[in-house]
């Protein structure tokens, strides 16, 4: 929100409250959590988070499917951290291709 | 002014940690993922037990599957900066933690999810450990010494607040204010503000 949407800190806090309420508002009780845990289901609804973020974008006059990448070299650069299985394969392939070129 | 915003969630030795960027990386070993803003937000918040993993529409890559995160990506920030601006001296780094004992994760007391509890303790120790590790490196010592690295991390009582307890924001606010009100932190804040202002004034 700060970096990609250039929101101010007070704006971020307001939106944080709103998003938290819509995503964590239906906090499952102990029993339901236990049931979800046994069933291997996450506790909170990812669709609610997705919807809340899209609503935030729309409210700020941005298309809800706007790409995270702004341009090749935006002034304010942002990245988020996550993990994936796929890049291992890609890096393996790249390494293999470099090996072939060598 | 260049700014990094890093959020971290997922790491597991068998999985590969990736950055989703708002710019193009020219690093030969890094992938430029195509994703929507909402996908980036989802990918980085897919903590296990909280949300299900996310699969990108464009490439089909799946993120956030069952792992808890590297909470303090200071080395990743420096590495990324080095790729973007090789041989440039970094003028200021501001690192903000989420509380020294960090995210409690979930209310684990009721149904004894020891694994989760243990993971969350590991996680918070990881963030703090990482800050300590950085302080010991050559660059870390230098940046501490010349007041270009600042780390703020509320170190008391915030651990009692769980991730999903959004309604306790006032409490977080109070604890943060108490932390920043300490004389040493007040000085750090001022120095940090000066450091950031100098950057802007010099047009970097």
Describe the secondary structure blueprint for this structure:
The complex is a heterodimer of chains A (102) and B (204).
Chain A: H1 9-24, H2 30-39, H3 46-59, E1 79-84, H4 86-101
Helix pairs in contact in A: 1-3
Chain B: E1 16-21, H1 37-45, E2 54-55, E3 62-63, H2 74-84, E4 93-96, H3 114-136, H4 138-145, E5 149-152, H5 169-180, H6 183-201
Parallel strand pairs in B: 4-5
Antiparallel strand pairs in B: 2-3
Helix pairs in contact in B: 3-4
Structure description:
- The complex is a heterodimer of chains A (102) and B (204).
- In chain A, 55% of the residues lie in helices and 6% in strands.
- Chain A is mainly alpha-helical and 102 residues long.
- Chain A is elongated and about 50 Å long.
- In chain B, a hairpin with a 6-residue loop joins β2 and β3.
- Chain B has 2 domains: 1-70, no CATH class; 91-201, no CATH class.
- Mean pLDDT of chain B is 76; it is low at 1-14 and 102-114.
- Chain B contains 6 helices and 5 strands, in the order βαββαβααβαα.
- The termini of chain B are close together.
- With 204 residues, chain B is mainly alpha-helical.
- The interface between A and B is large, with 54 and 68 residues.
- β1 of chain A pairs antiparallel with β1 of chain B.
Strand order of the largest sheet of chain B: 2-3
The number of E-state strands of chain B comes to: 5
Largest sheet of chain A: none
Largest chain interface and its two residue counts?
A: A-B, 54 and 68 residues
Largest sheet of chain B: 2 strands, antiparallel
Record keyword descriptors for this entry:
heterodimer; A: 102 residues; mainly alpha; 4 helices; 55% helix; elongated; disordered C terminus; B: 204 residues; two-stranded parallel ribbon; 6 helices; disordered N terminus
Sum this structure up briefly.
The complex is a heterodimer of chains A (102) and B (204). Chain A is mainly α.
């Amino acid at each position: 929100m700060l970096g990609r949407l250039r929101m101010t800190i007070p704006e971020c806090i307001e939106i944080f409250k709103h998003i938290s309420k819509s995503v964590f508002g239906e906090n499952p009780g102990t029993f339901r959590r236990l049931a979800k845990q046994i069933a291997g289901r996450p506790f909170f609804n990812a669709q609610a988070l997705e919807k809340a973020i899209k609503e935030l974008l729309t409210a700020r006059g941005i298309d809800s499917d706007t790409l995270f990448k702004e341009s090749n070299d935006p002034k304010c650069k942002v990245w988020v951290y996550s993990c994936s299985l796929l890049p291992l394969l890609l890096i393996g392939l790249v390494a293999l291709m470099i090996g072939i070129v060598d | 002014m260049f700014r990094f915003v890093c959020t971290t969630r997922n790491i597991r030795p068998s999985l590969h940690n990736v950055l989703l960027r708002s710019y193009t990386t020219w690093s030969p070993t890094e992938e430029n993922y195509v994703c929507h803003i909402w996908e980036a937000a989802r990918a980085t918040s897919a903590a296990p037990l909280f949300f299900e993993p996310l699969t990108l529409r464009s490439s089909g890559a799946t993120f956030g599957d069952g792992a808890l995160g590297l909470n303090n990506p200071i080395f990743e920030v420096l590495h990324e900066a080095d790729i973007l601006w090789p041989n440039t001296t970094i003028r200021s780094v501001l690192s903000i933690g989420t509380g020294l004992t960090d995210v409690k994760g979930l209310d684990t007391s009721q149904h004894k999810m020891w694994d989760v509890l243990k993971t969350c303790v590991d996680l918070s120790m990881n963030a703090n450990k990482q800050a300590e590790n950085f302080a010991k490196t050559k660059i870390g010592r230098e940046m501490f010494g010349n007041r270009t690295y600042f780390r703020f991390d509320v170190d008391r009582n915030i651990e009692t607040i769980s991730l999903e307890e959004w309604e306790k924001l006032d409490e977080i606010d109070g604890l943060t204010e108490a932390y920043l009100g300490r004389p040493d932190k007040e000085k750090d804040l001022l120095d940090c503000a000066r450091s950031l202002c100098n950057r802007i004034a010099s047009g970097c």
